[in-house]
Structure formats: C-alpha cells, structure tokens
Amino acid sequence: MKVGLQIPDFTTPDGPPRLGADLATVARTADEGGFEFIAVMDHFFQIRGVGAPEREMLEAYTTLGYLAACTSRAKLVTLVTGAVYRHPGVLAKIVTTLDVLSDGRAWLGIGAAWNEEESRGLGIPFPPVAERFERLEETLQICLQMWRGDESPYRGKHYHLDRPLNSPQSLSRPHPPIMIGGGGEKKTLRLVARYADACNLFAGRDEARKLEILRQHCETVGRDYDTIYKTAYYPFDTRKGAAQIVDELGALAELGFDAALGAVAGVWDVTPLELIGSEIIPAVADF
Questions:
Q1: What is the pLDDT of residues 21-39, one digit of tens each?
Q2: Which residues, including other chains, have CB under 8 Å from residue 163's CB and lie 6 or more apart?
Q3: How far is CA 54 from each of CA 22, 105, 139, rounded to the nearest angstrom?
Q4: Which of 39, 95, 165, 251 could bridge 6 with an S-S bond, Cβ 3.0-4.6 Å?
C-alpha cells in the first residue's frame, strides 16, 4: 500500500507572502518521507467542504510545476483535472511539459468536472453532464493519440484537431499514467476500464461495490481488471493515532486498493507528515 498527499487548502497561517515557501516545505517533507504522490485539486475557487469560495486557491498545473522543482521522487497529479477546463490538445501539452520537467513523474488525473459556480464565475463554458462526459472521453482519446505520436487529424463530436503534434514527447512511456477520478457506475467506471491506468474512489462510499462494478466493465471491454491501479481518497488525521490509520489502510488494501491519497490534517505544521513518514508508510508498505 502506497500513501499520497493531497493539498486542497492554500489558506496558510502566514498568508500568501509565505505560501510559496510553506508549500515547498510541505512538499519536500512529503517527498523525503516516502509519500508516493503529491496531488492538488483542479479548482479555481475553494470548494464547499473545505471553505468559502473566497479562500486562497492556486491553479493546479502551475502549482505542480513549482512542486516538481521542489521534489525529486514523488509522482505529481491533480485529483482531478476538470476535462472542460482546458482544451484537450493544450492539456496534453501541459501534462507532457510537467512530465519532461519532473523527469517522468507526471500523471494525468482527470474527471468530467462538477463545479458550476467557479466555471460560471470565470466564464468557462460548462455544458450539461452528458456533454461533459462526451468531452471527457474525447479528451482521453486525444491525449492518448498525442502521446502515441500520431499526428493525423482528430475529428470528434466536440473537438477537431488538424495536427495534434506533441514535441517534446513525454518521458513516461507509453504515456503519463491516466487516473480517472469518481465512482459513477455507468459512465466513469466504464471510462476507467476502457482508457485509464488507475482509478480513484472515495474511501467509505461503498468502495467494494464500486470495485466490483469496475471489474464487470473490464470484463465487458476485455480489460484485465488487475492491470488497473486502484487508489482511494482517504483523509489522514494523525490525531486518531498511527495504529488506527494503519488498520484502516489495511482494510483498503484487503479490498484491492494499491494506494491511499488524501489531505493531511494540520499539514502546514509538517509534524503530521513526519509522523506518517516514520510510522505509517513503513507499516503499510507490505500490505
């Protein structure tokens, strides 16, 4: 079982003037402590459940580029990119750039997007859910085509690309791993089975049944279920004690999850990160 850090909140004790330095400290602590992933959300406004929209929120890929320079081993990913926020050809270039500059550590985390408030607020087109999933699937097709080096025109329902050139090519081969986030049973998990290298489900939300449905989609499309890297979104609160966290991660591992990624309570203090690195990551390494 691997452990990953997601950083969802950029409202820090010392405010924006120290945010860059504080973020670098958090990332280096996680990287040196053995965290497998460092992730950020792909939002422009803060989301409900974390804080008011006015709270500080950094743009995801600029932040990951900065974190690439602050770290040396952790994989870098969004949980998850909103497919309608960037043109697919541009998104492929962004992730490729991150991959090249991080020495092959970029992943593409992606989903259909849900936050209409920030989209309307910033003037980003936000089509109905059915169209968002159509655009997500075309985005996956375009990214994979560009990472194959196939420059032939792409003609989809929503996107037309005359020459999807991608140079330099990604260092990760055959492409940066694709992680699709979400547990939608009819569309999201079907797309995981068809296109993705990894999935991300919320821990504690009927995840065993979701995995079984993913298995069924894999059977339908002729995909080996075991080739999909399974991750769970799991918030880390070290106040409950390392032993309980280890037990909970063990339960996820028994279900078939390969990694747990999530926010860490009190992360700006970095002490919780150090505890996870010293007591939890070694304890779950053989799960």
A1: 999 999 999 999 999 999 9
A2: 151, 153
A3: 20, 31, 30
A4: 39
